[in-house]
Each structure stands twice: as C-alpha cells, then as structure tokens.
Amino acid sequence: MQTISSHHLKLSQLTLGTVQLGVSYGIANKVGKPDESQSRSLLEKADQLGIRCFDTAAGYGDSEKVLGRYFQAAPPQDRLIVTKFKLKPDVDYSDADLEREVRSQLEESLQRLGIKQVPIYLLHQAGDLHRWQDRLVRVLDRLARENLIGLAGVSIYRGEDLDLMLQYDLFQATQIPINIFDQRLIRSGHLQRLQEAGIIVFSRSVFLQGLFFMDPAQLPPKLAGAAPLLEGLHRLAAAENLPVAQLALSFVRDLPGITSLVIGSETPEQVAENVRLIEGPALSPAGMATAGGLFPEVPELIVNPFLWQ
After folding, report:
1. Each residue's pLDDT tens digit, 147-181
2. DSSP 225
3. Is residue 235 part of a domain?
4. Could you tell me whether strands 9-12 and 3-6 are parallel, antiparallel, or unpaired per DSSP bridges?
5. Is residue 299 part of a domain?
6. Domain residues for 132?
7. DSSP line for 83-143
8. Residue 233 domain-assigned?
C-alpha cells in the first residue's frame, strides 16, 4: 500500500476508521459492533495488509479502549493514531476551565490508547472552534509544546469551518466529508486551498456510510430522493467497467490534495476488500471528468448522514 510522508509522519493511503469497534454504525451495517475477538482479528488483518493509520474518537463508544488493548498485545510498529475530542456545548468555560477540560480529555484518551502522545488530535466538532477560537487554540498549542500531541487539526463539515481553521497556523490536519455525491469542498476551492497550505487531509464518507451500496428500490422513505442518483452512479460504474465501490473510492483517492481515506470495516474480509480497492485502478480521464459533473447539487438531506435519523 502506498505510504505518504507529511509533517515528518508516515501515513498509509488507507486509514482504518474504528467507530465500528465501539458502536454499531452506518446505514448499511448488518453485522453490528464486533466483540473483542472479532475486533482483534480485524485489527490484525489491518496490520498484516499495511494499514498504519487508525481513526478513532473519545465519542466512539469504547473504540479507544479496544485499540489500546490491541496495541498493548501487539506492540507498535509504525502506527499513527488520529483521535478526536469535543467540548460540552452547555458550559461557559473560563480560560482555566477550558484548559482543564481539554487536558483531561486528552489524558483520558492517552490512557485508553496506551500511548504517550497522540500523533494527530482533532477537534471533533468545528463548532467548538467557532465558539472558542483563540482561547482553544492557545490550549492546544500548549499541549503540542508539551509533546502530548503531535499535530492539531479540525474535523469539519462546511467550507466556513475550513475558512476559520486556515486562519490558524497551528492546525496542520483536517478530516473532511467528500465523495462522488458530495463535492462541495471541491467546487468551492477549499480542497485546493488545503493542498496549497500543505495540510494533511483525511477524507471520510467515501461510500456515504454505505448508501452507495443500497438498492435504489429499497431505500428508506427519507432517502427516496437518492434513488435516481444511485441509478446514475450505477450507470457511470458500468461505463467505466468498475464496481460501484471501486468507482467511488478511486474518485476520492485520486483527487489532488487528499492524503488518506478513512474507511471503516466490520470484518477482516472487509478490511482486505478495502485494501484491494485502495490499490485498484483509476477512473479514465473522461470518467473522472464525468464524475466531477454528474451530481452538481445533491440535497443536504442525502449527503448529511446526521439528517437521516
């Protein structure tokens, strides 16, 4: 698997998303949360196949604990862990309380993961940056100077989140939603700005949480509007002579500015399949151009999984 070097870090082109190790996740998830033995098998497969990046968060159930136990049993090779934190929305922190809260959450993540430094530490909600801005950045800067975190960053959803993030030199990593249906950050020029700034960019929702694999005729009523889009996706995949999964993944993988794709797996077999896809063929230049213009204005209801509930 291709490895990318950035900011003195080595990142595999595929990052294993581990929310599934802590909670049942994804509209197409039919397996549920794996038990400890299944989680260990899944992580062993990731190690064997060259996955070196693992994405988790304090809010992903016991995902951090599962990873920590595995890493203790299988001593680190050159793994890179990305984890995330968020602040309590109903608390008006003083400067001292804000630092205590962030430091406490970081220390708890370090303990659960069994490590001394988080290589990449992300704000899980960009709203925290909008609210606390310089005060929060100063706290993260202190933690970075203490070598408790390697790089700081923000998990974002909208372009205005990136506009704010890019005002701070401290932030050198981000996680963004991007897929063949959701190309807003491409069209707005934000992905290009991230590339020009040398930011590590993790892409999430490559398969839109499994929506791409659902039968257009059997969608939940709330997502019925996705049926013609899925049919268009299937037609493009047929024209490219690629499975839908390969089409969707190759489109994001080959975008300039994307560093690593965060993709979750429920079984070792899915890990192996995702590694096969990350090493799979590119779209033709014509196919890439078609994919870039085929879904111009997809409704928010379809591209934002938070609205599916």
Report:
1. 999 999 999 999 999 999 999 999 999 999 999 99
2. G
3. no
4. antiparallel
5. no
6. 3-211+244-281
7. EEE---TT----HHHHHHHHHHHHHHHHHHHT-S-EEEEEES-HHHHHHHHHHHHHHHHHH
8. no
